[in-house]
Amino acid sequence: MEEIEMQFEKIRETLKQIGLGHNESKIYLTLLKLGSSMAGKIAKEANVDRSACYDSLKALIKKGLVKYVLEANRKMFSAEDPRRLVDFLKEKEEMVGEVLDDLKNLYYDKKDDSQVTMYRGYNGLKSVFEDILKEAKENENLVIDSSGRMSDKMPYYVHHYIKGLEKNKITVRHIVRRSRKPGLNPSKTTVIRSFPKDIKETIITTNIYAGKIAMILWSDIPEAVIIQNKAAYIAYKDYFEILWARARES
Question: Which of 84, 107, 126 represents a domain boundary (last residue)?
Fold first, then answer.
């Protein structure tokens, strides 16, 4: 009995998360269990006030999850097939889709011109690299990296990242330190140039892409920062072009 009650509560919590009110979820599940019933019996079984029960029944009818028929001038309520919940969610998705462009316009209008986001640990770094794959799609990522540590520190992820660069047609111009290997199997979209041998090695990698600068510190617990700032992006890009012009092809 206790297991059944726990299952009931779990289902009810899920119904609440997809948009049913507290009483609505109780009444819908009660109707599934009872079958066609009058409002008074539903309220009693669901342990809900009669007036609140009527309000919830009206809301469920509006959502297409409950129906009623008249029998001897009495309303007999019943639940729709639970598969109707899938249609209910699709309708909500379509409703959001209709206003999504307007919502995005509001979001971008209010968005700050400058934004700094910090990340820590290897999961944080994955978020940075996934942002590059998403934002630089069919565009360019400029990399200043004299450490080559990604393939050393993230050997399992690097293959996914390389495939992502190729799939998303991201052109990479990558400057590395000549005395160090440029990385593990660089993508087919990557062009590499090298610094002279006397350039001191660093543990910082800089990615310049899509109006952003992502700087990664390959410390024992790696850290990263993404700077989204138009002026900073232009300055870093110009700096990269100077280095690129002076670097040698690998």
Answer: 84
**Is this structure's pTM higher than 0.85?**
no
Q: What is the dihedral of CA 232, 234, 239, 242, to 10 degrees?
A: 180
Report the SS3 class of residue 68: strand
Q: Please give the single-letter amino acid code of residue 36.
A: S
pLDDT, one tens digit for every residue, the chain (250 residues): 555 566 667 777 887 787 788 888 888 888 888 888 888 998 898 888 889 999 988 988 988 888 888 888 888 998 888 888 888 888 888 888 888 888 777 766 555 567 889 999 999 999 999 999 999 999 999 999 856 678 888 888 988 999 999 999 999 999 887 655 545 457 889 998 887 766 677 789 999 999 999 999 999 999 999 999 989 999 999 999 999 998 887 6
Q: Count of CB atoms within 10 A of residue 241's CB?
A: 13
My answer on whether 127 and 221 are in the same domain is yes
Cβ-based neighbours of 30, under 8 Å, separated by 6 or more: 42, 45, 46
Strand order from edge to edge, sheet including 223-228: 115-120, 223-228, 212-217, 204-209, 140-145, 171-177, 190-195, 248-249
- Interacting residues of 203 by C-beta distance below 8 A, sequence separation 6+: 147, 149, 217, 218, 219
What is the residue range of 170's domain? 115-249
Q: Mark out the alpha helices in 35-170 (DSSP H runs).
A: 39-46, 50-62, 84-110, 121-135, 150-153, 155-167
